[in-house]
Amino acid sequence: MHSPLTEAELRAAWQRLRMSGDFDKAMSRTPVRCAVEAAARAFNARIRTRETRSLDAKERAAGERES
């Protein structure tokens, strides 16, 4: 099971998806909510991946990583 998303994360995903219309009214519909939640989780995962990769690159450049 996924951790619950905050309303701010859902609104951010709504804006990133460039959705139009009333956010509150649209979130009352289950299919729309599921789609926006999936997009929010994908955006969050992409951000975490970028942060991890940038840290790994810095560690390799500094010679602080064995692999």
Written description of the protein model:
The chain is mostly helical and about 70 residues long. It has one domain. Helix content is about 70%, strand content about 0%. The protein is built from three helices and no strands. The chain has helices at about 5-15, 25, 30-60. The chain is elongated and about 50 Å long. It starts with 6 loop residues before the first helix and ends in a 5-residue tail after the last helix. The mean pLDDT is about 85.
Keywords:
67 residues; single chain; mainly alpha; 3 helices
Summary of the model, kept short:
The protein has 67 residues and is an all-alpha fold.
Topology:
Blueprint: H1 7-16, H2 23-27, H3 30-62
Helix pairs in contact: 1-3
Topology as a string of helices (H) and strands (E):
HHH
Mean pLDDT equals 85
Q: Which word captures the global form?
A: elongated
The main sheet comes to: none
Tell me the number of helical segments per DSSP (H or I, 4 or more residues long).
3
| Percent of residues in helices | over 70%
Number of domains: 1
Class from secondary-structure proportions: mainly alpha
**Rg (C-alpha, Å):** 17 Å
User: What low-confidence regions span 5 or more consecutive residues with pLDDT below 50?
Assistant: none
Assembly state: single chain
- N- and C-termini, Cα separation: 33 Å
Quote the beta fraction. Answer: under 5%
Number of strands: 0
